[in-house]
Amino acid sequence: MGSILVTGASGTVGRAVAAALASTGESVISAVRNPAGSEFALDPPAGTPRAFDFSDPTGWAGAFAGVDRLFLLRPPAIANVADTLIPVIDTALAHGIRQIVFLSLQGVQFNPATPHHAVEKHLRRRRAPYTFLRPNFFMQNLSTVYRDGIRERGEIYLPAARARTAFVDARDIGRVAARVFTEPGHLGSAYTLSGEQSLDYYQVADILSEVLGWRIVYARPSVDDYLARLAEQGAEADFIAVQKMIYRVVRLGVSACPNRVIRRLSGDPATTFRQFATDHRDVWS
């Protein structure tokens, strides 16, 4: 049996997937843009590092040497999947890949405007040996993308109104990915991964307040105010557009429904937000 190539291995989800796979004894190849870089050297993901760049097709064939399975995710900076992820898929299939686990998006089947939809469509069209993981919002968004607002201003500033979200911990995605790679019966399947709790951002702020020991508030801005703040902070237009779309979906309640798919696939319950906040409390200190 060959190795598993994990793209985005230095990021939040890829790192969790590489770690979970390595813990099962699988041979893991962690794909990173620059294995010799200082940032990578300080905090390497699990597995053997291998240079891989979605924007450099000359290195794709070599990346699949000895690989028979692929964990594929779309880096946030990549909007044009037609010139990146889709030809990577074709390269993988040409090298005889026997499973592609694609990190997609909750509700993607109803949202053809997303790049994830195009990737899923291509995998189906190619009759690829796919498994789709469609996660809800990551808890890690609050400890990374939105961390500074919480840490520096004591506020969660997002236009979600009173809508609820069944947040998912990236570590749980890693555990699920490890199972679908190492157990039979998952080819051609699509799994929506949500937490087992559904929380609004007032509740999220209350839990953070209790765990951190200081007051966090949910500011509940309007969409226009939120987008204006992003622009003032220098956010790219593509990022602003994605944020507008994301929180429209949230306000429609698409992300509100909890489920037990993580429990069913991994054998353990989904991580609660309180446990996540406790485990990561230092990032907001």
From TrEMBL:
Gene3D superfamilies, per the entry: NAD(P)-binding Rossmann-like Domain (3.40.50.720), UDP-galactose 4-epimerase, domain 1 (3.90.25.10)
Pfam families: NmrA
UniProt-listed SUPFAM superfamilies: NAD(P)-binding Rossmann-fold domains
Domain of life (superkingdom): Bacteria
Entry's transmembrane regions: none
Domain NmrA-like: residue ranges: 3-244
Residues spanning the signal sequence: none
Name of the featured protein: SDR family oxidoreductase
Originating organism: Cryobacterium sandaracinum
